[in-house]
Amino acid sequence: MSAHITIALDAMGGDDAPGIVVHGAEIASQRYPDVRFLMFGREQEVMPLLNQTTRLKDVVEFIHTDDKVLSSDKPAIALRSGRKSSMRLAINAVHDGRADGIVSAGNTGALMAMSKFVLKTLPGVDRPAIASFFPTLRGESLMMDLGANLSCDADNLVDFAVMGNAFARCVLGVQEPSVGILNVGSEDVKGHEYLQVASSMLRQANLPGEFVGFVEGDDIGKGTVDVIVTDGFTGNVALKTAEGTAKLITEFFRQTFKSSFLASLGYILASSALNKLKKRVDPRLYNGAIFLGLNGIAVKSHGGTDAIGFANAIGVAVDMRDQDIVRKIREDFDSLTRDPINEQAAFE
User: Fold this and answer.
1) Residue 143: which H helix or E strand, with range?
2) What is the mean pLDDT of residues 126-135?
């Protein structure tokens, strides 16, 4: 890892802030001893926590502000009235070159609006997208968009594919990523017209790896492709469905093993394997949604996570900076081939 990476932290964002932020930074500093932090928040709440840690003493610069963005704030209101909030000041630090990325567990809409306003989008990117990891049978896949853009056109989906492809190569280490568009069927004639147009455009693009065409919902867990592209409405529904299913199965396991003495005994005998399963699907390990397409690094931690989850979100930001993901996405857009003739033909 490159030396001297600085991450800006919104200490007041999240359900259990600032505790998860301070303790998450402490865990991250153990994993990444060369990383430094700029932490923005209310001194009376943050400093007592910082003073309890020894590891953060020399790696955190704290900047006080009384203002914070509330989870109930609408993005437009937060953008206008939150100029001195901990979230906005952390984003400003990235824009000003004092930090290499920002991590916040705060209001998702406000974070996206502020990040887009301050950092701007990369040349060629119409809309930034939210991307995150999904555990699969093959390891993990990246899906985008997960809620930033509820409706998209073909160009938006192509943009997402370009950004996801670059991320998979740089951060996931997949040299030849496979990319698919989420649809109601794998056949070329299935789905809305804009999906078919996007598919046609990606088949003509000169992206590294393979564009496999359309994938279905059950392909997410199978790990059929490394990058799954969809609009924000569908992606967010898929994300929440996966989270709900994971909680449902966990509760079923709990009820089953408590149903009888023999079941409890079975739990004891299978505890080692069940612990491995628990770690494999632990949502904290996949915490850290990435705002791709911005001219800077912004990572959104789940608002209800704990310190371990927040530390993993910091790790995502560190990896993105270490792999210089913004520059590589910019280079991929510069080399992208779009064929307007084929695009028009797909409509006809």
Assistant:
1) strand 139-144
2) 88
Are 31 and 307 in contact by the 8 Å Cβ rule? The answer is: no
The rounded distance, in Å, linking the Cα atoms of 170 and 168 is 6
Sheet holding 178-182, edge to edge: 60-64, 36-41, 6-10, 101-104, 298-300, 289-292, 129-136, 139-144, 227-229, 178-182, 210-215
The values of phi and psi at residue 80, to 5°, are -80, -45
- In whole angstroms, what is the distance from residue 286 CA to residue 246 CA? 13
* Rounded Cα distance, 54 and 22, in Å: 12
So what's the pLDDT on residue 16?
Answer: 93
Of 212 and 140, which is predicted with more confidence?
Answer: 212
CA distance 347 to 193: 7
Q: What pLDDT is stored for residue 340 in this prediction? A: 47
Which residue carries 């709440």 as its tokens?
45
Question: What pLDDT band is residue 347 in, cutting at 50, 70 and 90?
Answer: very low
Alpha carbon separation from 233 to 24, 219, 288, 322 (Å, rounded): 30, 18, 19, 31
Enter the pTM of the model. Answer: 0.85
- Angstrom distance (rounded) from CA 134 to CA 181: 15
Helix (H/G/I), strand (E/B), else coil: 286: helix
Judging by beta carbons within 10 Å of its beta carbon (0-12, 13-18, 19+), is residue 200 exposed, middle or buried?
Answer: buried
Write out the two tokens for 117. Answer: 């306003």
Q: What is the pLDDT of residues 284-316, one digit of tens each?
A: 777 888 999 999 999 999 898 999 999 999 999
Tens-place pLDDT, residues 231-253 = 999 999 988 888 888 888 888 88
Q: Give the separation between CA 204 and CA 180, rounded to whole angstroms.
A: 14
Q: Going by DSSP bridges, is the β-strand pair 227-229/139-144 parallel, antiparallel, or unpaired?
A: parallel
Cα dist from 84 to 91, 121, 228, 258, whole Å: 11, 22, 37, 51
Residue 107: both structure tokens together: 């209001």
Vertex 132, ends 198 and 82: CA angle to 5°? 105
